[in-house]
Amino acid sequence: MAKRLTALALMGAALAFAAGGAQAQTPKPGGNLVFAISAETPHYDCHGSETYATLHFSSPFYSTLLRFNLDKFPEVEGDLAKSWTVAPDFMTYTFKLHEGVKFHDGTPLTSADIKATYERMRNPPQGVVSPRKATFGDIDTIETPDPTTVVFKMKAVNASMLEHFASPWNCIYAAKDLAADPNSPKTKVNGTGPFVLVEHVKGSHVAGKRNESYFKKGLPYLDGYKGVFTLQAAAMLNALQGGQVLAEFRGISPAERDRLKQAMGDKIRIEESSWTLNLLVAFNVEKKPFDDVRVRKALLMAIDRWGGSQGLSRISTLRAVGGVLRPGSPLATPEAELVKLPGFSKDIAAARAEAKKLLAEAGVPDLKFTLHNRNLAMPYTPAGIFLVDQWRQIGVTVEHKQSDTAPYLATLNSGNYEVAIDFSNLFMDDSTLALAKYLSHKRSPQNLSRANDPELDKLYDDHVRERDVEKRKALVRAFEKRVFEQAYQQPILWWHRIVPSHKVVMGWKMSPSHNLGQDLAEVWLNQ
Amino acid sequence: MLRYVGNRLLLMIPTLFGVAVLVFFMLRIVPGDVVEVKLRADGGSVSQATIEMERKRLGLDKPLVRQFGDWMVGLATLDFGISMWTERPVIEEIAIRLELSLQVAIMATVIAVLIALPLGTMAALFRDTWIDYVVRIVTIGGLSIPSFWFGMLIMLSLLAFFNWLPPITFTPLYVDPVANLTQLIWPAMAVGYRYCAVVARMIRSSLLEVLNEDYIRTARAKGVFERVVIARHALRNALLPAVTVIGLEFTFLIGGLVVTEQVFNLNGIGMLLVQSVSRNDFTMIQGMVMLIAAFYVLVNLLVDVLYAVFDPRIRYTR
Predict the structure, then answer these.
(1) Residues in B touching A436 (Cβ below 8 Å)
(2) Which one of A162, A240, A364, B296 has the largest count of C-beta atoms within 10 Å of its C-beta?
(3) How big is chain B by its Cα radius of gyration, in Å?
């Protein structure tokens, strides 16, 4: 009996604890969040930007048609869209919008605003920059049968279209604002998002306050927020440690994480994830001897990615070994298959012996060249040093040349380099985005190998139009195999995201992309 | 004197024109431009057509001579142009930061002069005594320790001992003096220490030189009180080189506090200049360099005018 009572008491205590825990997790409205943004956006226009600085600034003010569900990433969910249907032939997408949505200036949102927004991105007027114009190139027409329905009709199947509709860059603007001045979103904020712009003090901070007429009832929880531009990592870390800012949502290095953990103990929360970013090494096939596949392949084979991952992950944001898609993502190549591809062997001694043989066969046993790299300490410099050392071990001499961003980009653009470290920044695990970097140079100028390979282009096009997931996966594998067998370019390592926040910051969701989940609608302060 | 000042102001025109030519064409020597940084630095897959369109919109496709001509015409009407990065007026971007930078420079100057004057004077008057040795240690320390490192020490000490840091965003003095001074006193101290060391060393050496002059001996021989000899005859003359140093240091502080501003997360002119350089924001860099150059010329003129105030023998009659 006593045992039974004890058991009941323990069960009761456990239930009470669980209830208490649940209660503690109930969001508390109110408060102001102060967080760090480690870069400042040049303007407010999501459509015309490629930098996260714009999203960390603008996302709280805007809504998108769909968005990624970060609890089930990469699933998508509705944002302004209450529901949607996709025609079986993938040629028509119909969205029903939430009713009663208003822009911050009080204008009601209608399907005309969605149409105007997407028209601006796919057919930008004179003077409007739209880096994602090609992404929406498969859209034929946008129809608005009624104020809450928008229909996208396609010219061709694009298996990734739904994910593209969830892109955080597709902020919805008011049609009347765009009609008055197509470039107004660069300098004026008028969205339907959870927060309203209070002020942007250049070089200092951005402040927002709760949008009282936000269409998602009960949200946002915060009264307001301030995003402080902390462009220097040391200043940001001091501010985090001193409690002046409560979070930094892009990501910090392992050394910075360790410093915060040591100094702040259990006051700091550290969340980690793989990251949709990678550094690549690209061989310019227009320069000799890199026009010889044996040379390129030898250089890839000499890189010990598995060993490098262990060392570099301690000192830099580089960590995961992977192919053209983020390791762990739905279409990524599993490790067992990856190790069979050039450059991924775990038997590095054998791989390097083979690499030396290939260099000798190509007539360049004492190869010397310059590795062009960007002058950013994290993680470009360690990646460059790592490569130089890897190639030294097969008798190759490399000069590591680092330049500031502008001359670095100018050099890449001019093609005046032999080997370069490049950067792939994706906001999701979509293969149409990830593979585009490897397309023929004439189709994809960001392909730094400058190679033109019709076989790759065909595989890419086939995979974009393929609706069956398994067949699509097979096409991605074939594409990846071709890229690595030809050794045009290859990811060195994928990045690892580490986000610090004070434990009072609740409701923010970690994801593999620093471009997602920044509208702050569900963030609250447990204090 | 007025004629002298007028002549010096007129001489500013060729000086600033020379600066303008140098900064404009030297910037264009470095490959790359702001458009690529803006659209491709974060791995963006922007088409070449978009890049060219942006270049055209910003006027970067025009011949260099025409770009220079347009800029010169703007400068003549005090129009510094539009920042290629933010597309807002350069003068507006500078104005936002100038208040903070000027205040830090003024506070650092006040701190430096208030400490340097007694330190340098005492070191000279008590030459080769323990007072001189202490002052030497303090001043050599100030010269040796970089301001930003001293700034980091200040921040980490505040954090370690008081678990407190100054405000991270700027509040103007007229809005909240306490919040303003709480934020800016620390960077002013960090740069003021080095500044003070330079000035104190200068005062010490020039005072030692002046104290050996004939007119000092004459004043003493006439029975003038030592305090009057020092304050009215020696120190006044010894201040001339110190005024030059104070002027130069002050102008340096306007645009040269890059790392210190980063340490304290200050939204100042130095940070803006470095960011503009890393972005290849030509118009912004040009505007800032012109502003800083004009500042240097004007402060030097002020220093020369002050010479006449401190030393009545100096007259700018021609």
Answers:
(1) 45
(2) A240
(3) 24
In a domain, B223, yes or no: yes
Kindly indicate the confidence band of residue B316, based on its pLDDT and cuts at 50, 70 and 90. Answer: low
Q: Are residues B6 and B144 in the same domain?
A: no
Interchain contact, A51 vs B41, CB within 8 Å = yes
For residue B93, the chain A residues in CB contact (below 8 A) are 202
Q: Is residue B86 part of a domain?
A: no
Chain B residues with CB inside 8 Å of A226's CB? 169
Cis check for the bond before A289: say yes or no (omega within 30 of 0). yes
Instruction: Say yes or no for a CB contact (<8 Å) between A129 and B39.
Output: yes
**Cα distance from A246 to chain B (closest Cα, Å)?**
12
The closest CB to that of A235, out of B47, B88, B262, belongs to: B262
In B181-220, the residues whose Cβ lies within 8 Å of chain A are: none
d(C-alpha A335, C-alpha A326), whole Å: 12
The answer to whether A52 faces chain B, any CB pair under 8 Å, is yes
Q: The tokens 């029903």 sit on which residue?
A: A96
Q: What is the pLDDT of residues A212-225, one digit of tens each?
A: 999 999 999 999 99
Report the residue from B31, B57, B152 with minimal CB separation from A410: B31
User: What is d(CA B272, CA B270) in angstroms, rounded to the nearest whole number?
Assistant: 5
Identify the three-state secondary structure at position A498.
strand
Task: Indicate the residue among B28, B45, B76 that finishes a domain.
Answer: B76
Judged on CB neighbours under 10 Å (0-12, 13-18, 19+), A339 is: middle
**Longest CA pairwise span in chain A (Å):** 87
By the 8 A CB rule, do B119 and B200 touch? Answer: yes
pLDDT tens digits for range B26-77: 998 888 888 888 888 777 667 788 888 889 989 999 999 999 999 999 999 9
Calculate mean pLDDT across residues A400-411: 89
Number of domains in chain B: 2
Residues B190 and B243 placed together within one structural domain of the fold: yes
Asked if the C-beta of A413 comes within 8 angstroms of chain B's C-beta atoms, the answer is yes
Statement to judge: residues B9 and B153 lie in one domain: no
Range of B108's domain? 94-310
- B148 and B43 together in one domain: no
Q: Exposed/middle/buried for A411, CB within 10 Å: 0-12, 13-18, 19+?
A: middle
**What's the mean pLDDT in A450-459?**
96
Residue A310: which pLDDT band, with cuts at 50, 70 and 90?
very high
Other CB atoms within 10 Å distance of the CB of residue A3: 7
Q: What is the pLDDT of residues A462-514, one digit of tens each?
A: 999 998 999 999 999 999 999 999 999 999 999 999 999 999 999 999 999 99
What are the boundaries of each domain within chain A?
32-195+504-525, 276-496
Residues B60, B158: one domain? no
Residue B36 lies in a domain: yes
Which residues 53-92 on chain A approach chain B with CB closer than 8 angstroms?
A: none
| Percentage above 70 pLDDT, chain B | 98
Please report whether residue B318 resides in a domain.
no
pLDDT at B127: 93
The secondary structure element, H or E, covering residue A151 is: strand A149-154
- CATH code: domain A276-496 is 3.10.105.10
| B42 contact residues in A (CB cutoff 8 A) | 50-52, 425
DSSP label at A332?
Answer: P
Residues B175, B269 within the same domain: yes
Which CATH superfamily is A32-195+504-525 part of? Answer: Dipeptide-binding Protein; Domain 1 (3.90.76.10)
Task: Give the ipTM of the model, two decimals please.
Answer: 0.82
Residues B104 and B54 in one domain: no
Smallest Cβ–Cβ distance between B159 and the set A202, A241, A411 belongs to A241
Domain final position from B76, B106, B139: B76
Residues B108 and B71 in one domain: no
Task: Name the B residues in 153-182 with CB < 8 Å from any A CB.
Answer: 155-156, 158-159, 163-165, 167-170
Per-residue model confidence as pLDDT tens digits over B105-135: 999 999 999 999 999 999 999 999 999 999 9
CA-based R_g, chain A, Å: 25
β-pairing, A92-97 with A81-86?
Answer: antiparallel
